[in-house]
Amino acid sequence: MNATTPGIPRPLPARAVGILGRTAELSRIRALLPDRRIDGVAVSGVGRSRVLAEIADWAQGQGFRVEPITGGRGLSALVCTVLLGPAGRVLAVVDDAHLLSEADTELLLELVRQGLVRLLAAGPDGLWPGENLGRVDLPPLGATDMAELARAITGDHPAARRLAQLAKGSPRLLRELVHLAADHPADQGGSLSEVIELRLAGLETGQRQALDLIAAAGFAPLPVFERLVDRHDLIILAEQELITAVETPTGWRVELAHNGIGAALGATPAPEPSTEDDQDHATGLMCAGRIEEALGAATDRFAEADAAHRSRHGLILAAMLLAHGQIRRAYDLLCLLPDGDPRWAILRLAAAAQLGDPDAVAVSALPDAPTAHLAAAAAVARAWAAAVRGDLDEARDLLCAKAEDTTWDRAARAHTLGRLGLARSAAPFWHSIGQHGYLRARLDYSRAIATADADLLAAVAEQFLTAGALLYGAEALAELAALHQRAGQPRKAAAAIRRARMLPVRHSGARTPGLALLAQNEPLSTRESEVVRLAVSGLTDPQIALRLGVSVRTINNHLHRAYRKLGCAGRADLPPGAGQ
User: Fold this and answer.
1) Any alpha helices (H) in 468-578, and if so which ranges?
2) Mapped to the 3 state alphabet, what secondary structure does 398-451 carry?
3) Per-position DSSP letters for 255-323, written without gaps between them
4) Which helix (DSSP H) or strand (DSSP E) does residue 234 occupy?
């Protein structure tokens, strides 16, 4: 690259040239990506951004819903796709994954571990070593492939061979060097970052300002940037492959061509997150089983919100309170909020029903839900309302109706059926694949009850408590105690009840079937246990009274309290071993 080789053209777009020398690696990634034994694929080595783009195009053709993530700014769109979009395979594509913040990395990986999304990530060798990912390393391209690539992107220019040698097997560096050669005839070598800095130095003021804005935003719809900056500057930046336009289901959006450009620009603070971003982030934490953290974030944002945004932040906080099991607090908050948002009506009905308030349920009306996710949430709320009215058949019909639900919605339907005492009706939901942690626990709750699987139900309770879903955990422990009682294991039942009673849900205001079961399964007193044990052995009430030196009336009172606690109709229903 020198003054004797003028006229080097700007390189053709990467997609127009195609990808060379990666046949084996592409085949391996395509084979690994659908493999359910792993959570996704991590790509390292040379030219990984180009390979990621190629695989993303292929994945869309295979039915994946592809969501790119750049600098963490794609997480909101990813959560929206998972929770609000139709059911289907979602693929998170993360270039330069090592540059994600620690918080964004943890949230993304939790969504992956839960089975909500599959992952295609590019970064240095050894990226996220503890994760269950297939790994593909891209070695530098050989001399033949580099020479062919250089001829392709320069239009077979005489300088192609020299440029290929300078790039040292890196397709990205080759492209940057071709750009630089087109602008600067003098010989330029160096690293990729040095090449990018030279290119940035040649930008005009408007172009640099536009690039800074795009770097700060991470990505945004193309019409937004067209209103903020000169369209001509956007075209120049795109021609120099500093930015790229990506087509999404909702239109075109603009983002940096790769994170190396953002690094060269310097760390530009991202703008304050919008309320929608806050909601997506809090919901993503909840979905990943981090409900305590989600509630804390929602509480802080609500306390800091100005008057214009307080209502929307209040809705987010109310949803987190419901997930945490603080039903009364959620309901009181919702009663203070205006009712212009359909989510308000859905959340308020769900809260009123779980409080067991028939008057509030009777006057609640739900508007038409604008999305499939809200329609599913409305079905759950209506089912709770039907149960309060005593119509469990209607509740079952609402929850079992066929719909284009997300995994989250299916888990909510299955869990609610179990919570309403309709566990066997949730059987069609039990075999949803690829779920772990909190979501798997919601799916397994009804299955454990219906199949009397005490070990599974104990694991479900632990998962709920770990996630911070305290009400769900208390209900699971109450159901576990009931299973142990029916199996003639009163000590295990008492242990489950004691643990449930330590949870702060008795003051939550909730009146659910699970908590009613908890009230029924109060531990027997020492004297009640003694009386029950003698009754199970076959002694009559007078015989027990004579043995213990008390009146027959006292024995009758002890037995009636024990029947209520054990859920028995009378002496004949006492399980073997009761009172031990």
Assistant:
1) 470-486, 490-501, 513-520, 526-536, 541-548, 552-566
2) HHHCCCCCCHHHHHHHHHHHHHCCCHHHHHHHCCCCCCCHHHHHHHHHHHHHHC
3) EES-HHHHHHH--PPPPPPPHHHHHHHHHHHHHTT-HHHHHHHHHHHHHH--TTTHHHHHHHHHHHHHH
4) helix 231-239
CA distance 146 to 410: 50
Closest by alpha carbon to 364, among 353, 377, 375, 380? Answer: 353
pLDDT of residue 186: 45
**DSSP labels, 354-415:** HTT-HHHHHT---PPPSSHHHHHHHHHHHHHHHHHTT-HHHHHHHHHS-----HHHHHHHHH
Instruction: State whether residue 90 is helix, strand or coil.
Output: strand
State how far the Cα of 17 lies from the Cα of 36, in Å rounded to an integer.
Answer: 33
Dist. CA 518–CA 472, nearest whole Å = 12
Q: Name all contacts of 463-468 with Cβ < 8 Å and 24+ positions apart.
A: 463/289, 463/437, 463/438, 464/438, 465/503, 466/289, 467/289, 467/290, 467/291, 467/437, 467/438, 467/441, 468/290, 468/291, 468/292, 468/293, 468/295, 468/324
CA distance 113 to 106: 10
Q: How many CB atoms lie within 10 A of CB 296?
A: 15
What's the mean pLDDT when you consider all of the chain? 78
What residues does 220 pair with on adjacent strands? 254
Give the per-residue pLDDT at 38.
92
Please state the pTM of the whole predicted model.
0.57
Q: Residues near 497 by Cβ (< 8 Å), separated by ≥ 6?
A: 477, 478, 481, 518, 521, 522, 523
Which amino acid is residue 372, in one-letter code?
A
| Closest C-alpha among 503, 502, 496, 504 to residue 521 | 496
Give the DSSP H or E segment for 61. helix 48-61
Q: What is the DSSP letter of 133?
A: -
Q: Give, as one character, the DSSP assignment of residue 124.
A: S
pLDDT score recorded for residue 179: 63
Q: Which amino acid is at 175?
A: R
Q: Please state, in angstroms and rounded to a whole number, the distance separating the CA atoms of residues 433 and 440.
A: 9
Bridge partners for 44 per DSSP: 137
pLDDT tens-digit profile of 55-95? 998 998 898 888 888 655 667 667 776 765 555 578 999 98
Average pLDDT over residues 526-536: 87
Count the neighbouring beta carbons within 10 Å of the beta carbon of residue 389: 13
CA–CA separation, 313 vs 300, rounded Å?
10
Mean pLDDT over residues 240-245, rounded? 74
For 547-574, b where at least 16 C-beta lie within 10 A, e where not — what string?
eeeeeeebbeebbebbbebbebeeeeeb
Say if CB 366 and CB 345 are below 8 A apart.
yes
